[in-house]
Amino acid sequence: MRTLPVISDPKTRQAEFRIGYIWVALATAICAGFTIGAHVSFVIGFDFPLGEGFYSFIQTHGHLQLVGWAGLFIIGISLHVIPRLASVPLTHPHWIPRILWLMAAGLLLRTIGHSVLPYLAGGVFYIPVNWLVAGSGLLEWCGIAMYVSLLLRTLGGIGDIRMQPALLSVRPYFGMMMTGWLLYATLNLILLVQMAVRKGIVMDKGWNEFALQVFIGLVLLPVAFAFSVRMLPLYLTLRAPDWPIRGTAYVYLISFCLLVVPMSPLFSALAPGPARFVSSLGMLLRGGIILWFVWQFDILTRRYEPWTAKQDVQPSPGRRPTRLGLADYGEFGRFEKLVYAAYTWLVLAACFEVLDGAAALLGYQPPVGTDAVRHMYVLGFITLLIFGVSVRLIPGLLKKKCVANATLVEATLWLGNTAAVCRVLPSLIPLGVFEAIPASLVVAQSAFALSGVIGLGAVLCLGINLWRTAGT
Ligand code: HEM
């Protein structure tokens, strides 16, 4: 990782893109996040006995995937994109590598510390390692606080926000993202310190679940919507982003609060019945508003004219036409399929949230579990979106004209979708089917067990492709 100096574009004074975030995100995913996911799915799928500390692997996997894999991609790309959207340079560009160092050190300490903790129980190293794991939370908290502070200071220099319509329309989404980062980092730190004080192996499960909902609902989904709205109309020639994007964000925020706040152990212990009712209402509303977002965004339906129809730009004579309905010549592979697949997973997740919310309100057991819907969001939607957008965006940021290998993009598509199907589908099949067709149980269990290895294959393909792109 290069630290200094940060070379800036002298005209715009914008800092150059830091690929280090992408390498650390990929390294975290390949060496730890997906690998631990592969281990836990293998153990659960093939019915191996779960040791006492098994849940520490699940918590480590969840944290690394959210913060290390998706989170570092978001930080790296947002530090490049947000100042450009706002037309102001970063106030402290030399913080970019410092934030990365803090995050990388925190994630490494967490990976090693929390994974070995169950094996050290009763030994002399148990308590020091437990405090080192708490230290990882402090390092990450410092990195995240610096990141949010850098964005806030930078955005503070905009002046009249009405002069920046591109930023104005997605500002509430970035507001949610920054709040979510701070809330999650603080909760994570408190839970790790509490774990060390208790001399425990895992963090408090109820509050950990709450923190995960905060990260997914306030960071991942809003930032994915904001980047989609600003980037995808250009890449996929969608309709102009002139629909009520801000209003949608506020309704989303209300639905998030209704869904998640009552789920905090504080409220769910105090008044379990009303908390469940309000949370189910929030779930129904969030699923609904996400479906509305996708409908308005028009990415899967294409009911509106593309934004280019309103422009009077004709390709210069003799210029090769771009791919039909797209802005490229195929030099980034069939990245659009990954993006369409990601949005299909999002629609599925939202439909299941509507179903679960409605069932709970009517007094029935929710038909789909939280874990399946969660992986539709984070693996199906967020991960496939990262796969698709990164091969389209990052070559340009590295001043390359194309991605190294279009076949690897195709491989990412097939492996990524297969991993998501194998991870999620077994949890959706009703028990009756397994009773009626006993062989289906073995197939479902094997698919679940192997989903992690397949997902690891997908992220490896992306890593190799981006590495080769950077090296060409
Ligand atoms: C194919 C890839 C993946 C596999 C095989 C996998 C597997 C698993 C398994 C078996 C669990 C435990 C579920 C339970 O408690 O019943 C889990 C939990 C979780 N996973 Fe994944 N996962 C994958 C990808 C991802 C991705 C990409 C993300 C996020 C970007 C993610 C985030 C989480 C979270 C947040 C939890 C909950 C952790 C907790 O309870 O503390 N997973 N995963």
Outline the structure in words.
- With 472 residues, the protein is mainly α.
- The chain has a domain at 11-223.
- 74% of the residues lie in helices and 0% in strands.
- It has 14 helices and no strands.
- The protein has helices spanning 20-45, 54-86, 95-120, 126-155, 165-198, 205-236, 245-260, 265-270, 272-297, 335-361, 370-397, 406-428, 431-436, 438-471.
- Helix 7 (245-260) runs antiparallel to helix 9 (272-297).
- The longest helix is centred in the middle third of the chain and has 34 residues, at 165-198.
- Residues 1-5 have low confidence and may be disordered.
- Protoporphyrin IX containing FE binds next to helix 1, helix 2, helix 6, helix 11 and helix 12.
Structure summarized in a few sentences:
It is built from 14 helices and no strands.
Low-confidence stretches: 1-5
Strand content: under 5%
Shape: globular
Mean model confidence by pLDDT: 93
What is the H/E string? HHHHHHHHHHHHHH
Radius of gyration: 22 Å
Bound molecules: protoporphyrin IX containing FE
Instruction: Note the main sheet.
Output: none
Keywords:
single chain, 472 residues, mainly alpha, binds protoporphyrin IX containing FE
Layout of SSEs?
Layout: H1 20-45, H2 54-86, H3 95-120, H4 126-155, H5 165-198, H6 205-236, H7 245-260, H8 265-270, H9 272-297, H10 335-361, H11 370-397, H12 406-428, H13 431-436, H14 438-471
Helix pairs in contact: 1-2, 1-3, 1-14, 2-3, 2-4, 2-6, 3-4, 4-5, 5-6, 5-7, 6-7, 6-11, 7-9, 9-10, 10-11, 10-12, 11-12, 11-14, 12-14
The site of protoporphyrin IX containing FE (HEM) has 27 residues, from helix 1, helix 2, helix 6, helix 11 and helix 12.
